[in-house]
Amino acid sequence: MSAAATIQNTSESDFPYPLPPKVHPLPANLLDLSPASSIDALLTNPPHPSQTLSEKNIWFFWHSGYSTLPPHHRRTIHAYHRRFSPSGWTIRVVDCAPGSALNISNFLDVRDPALFPAAFADGALTGSHAIQHTSDLVRWPLLLTYGGVYADAGLIQIGDLDELWNRTVGDESSPYEAVAYDGGEVAHRTLANYFFACRKGSNPFFSRCHQLLLKLWEGKVSTEGLHAHPLLKGVPLMGAGLKLEEDGKVFTAEECGALLTDYIIQGQVMTMVLGLVDEETGWDGPKYARDKVYALEFMVGAQLYNEFTGWNGSRAFELMSLPLPKEGERESADQRAAREIVENCLARSFAFKLATGIILRFYGDTLGSLWRKNPGSDDVPGTYAHWLRHGSIYWSPDELPKPVQFDREFEPFKAGPLLREN
User: Which residues does UniProt assign to the signal peptide (predicted)?
Assistant: First the structure.
């Protein structure tokens, strides 16, 4: 075990987990430790944001509704409620389930062409990842209408989200207007699309992003081929270095990039907007990225466990499923590796991203896909996975992450109006 002090917290497990260095326990009054059934009742009947008038909204999307969430995702959303509802946050899992009180149509006019493309309104989205792209299309409209945070259900929160909000977009004296994770390519000003935060209203960045996204969707029922849309000309394809072989076909680097870019077209849109200079409307994307976007670092921010496991999902699952050494037992090499993951993620990361979707084609099973295939494996008391879960509720890193510093010198991808083809 580590030399860190061992403490006992009230939880669903009596297992005494070690408190890592640079991590502190949260006061009990900042936690909702109600039974899971009580939290389910609150999450399925939250107040409408028009009733609360608060911008402290945490939005999730699950197409078929809250009741169909896989158990590990439900635990994640419970943790958001336990951690942040005492600080005034309301958690909502919106959906497209017929008759659901949390159907997106109860929050936004899905027939409004300024909010959604026709394929969304008609329920006509197709393709292997239609559900993911449905989720993409609700994020910016929700934030621009009501404000708050959008997070993927697979994003386990570790850092103090309330404090980050209060120091950035929630503080009117702060220069920051948008929060997101860096996409891993600082030179191109890329951002990931699994977490956003902003105030409601006409956020100049997300508003432009959504305008461009809607334009790309015109006349489309899927994102296939959007990587080559003229309005994205000049933006490098995603996935540099990825390799793929399926059914005897070896994909070229360009084909891999096209697949990934079509899948995360929302990310490509953000890269274009931050790489655009339009003197006609006074938009300077590189300057906005530098001065107004609080970009959380990609790897340490939410992917740190993948650095420790070389993006090997089976290895991550194996390590996180291990039991901690019992008193008097010697720590094995694998237990040490698992401990280093948990201690570093709880102390240094702001979140813990569980990847699924198209990434499975490139890397095979991920920790997220294996937790889904093995229900309850993330919630076994005495394991490293449960230690991580415990820490994500009861503890917080001592410091907030510093934002990524985008380079001052940058050659824009495009000059001129956003929706005009060059």
Answer: none
How many residues does this entry show for the chain? 422
Question: What is the rounded CA–CA span in Å between residue 320 and residue 376?
Answer: 12
Q: Which residues pair with 218 in a beta bridge?
A: none
Burial of 303: CB neighbours in 10 Å, binned 0-12, 13-18, 19+: buried
pLDDT at position 167 over 80 = yes
DSSP secondary structure code for residue 98 in this structure = T
In angstroms, what is the C-alpha Rg of the chain? 21
Among candidate residues 82, 80, 74, 73, the one with its CA nearest the CA of residue 11:
82
pLDDT score of 410 more than 90: no
DSSP-assigned letter for residue 149 = E
Q: How far apart are CA 152 and CA 50, in angstroms?
A: 23
* Cβ pair 261, 253 in contact under 8 A: no
Round to whole Å and give the CA distance between 372 and 375.
6
pLDDT digits (tens, 9 = 90+) for 170-181: 999 999 999 999
Residue 96 and residue 120 in contact, taking contact as beta carbons nearer than 8 Å? no
DSSP string over 291-319: HHEEEEPHHHHH-HHHHHHTT-HHHHHHH
CA distance 413 to 289: 14
Q: Which residue stretches of 349-381 are H helix?
A: 359-363, 367-373
Query: Which residue in the block uniquely carries the two structure tokens 């889904």?
Result: 372
pLDDT of res. 249: 93
CB distance 201 to 193 below 8 Å: no
Please state which of the ranges 12-16, 230-234, 292-296, 350-354 shows the lowest mean pLDDT: 12-16
- The DSSP output letter for 106 is G
pLDDT for position 407: 78
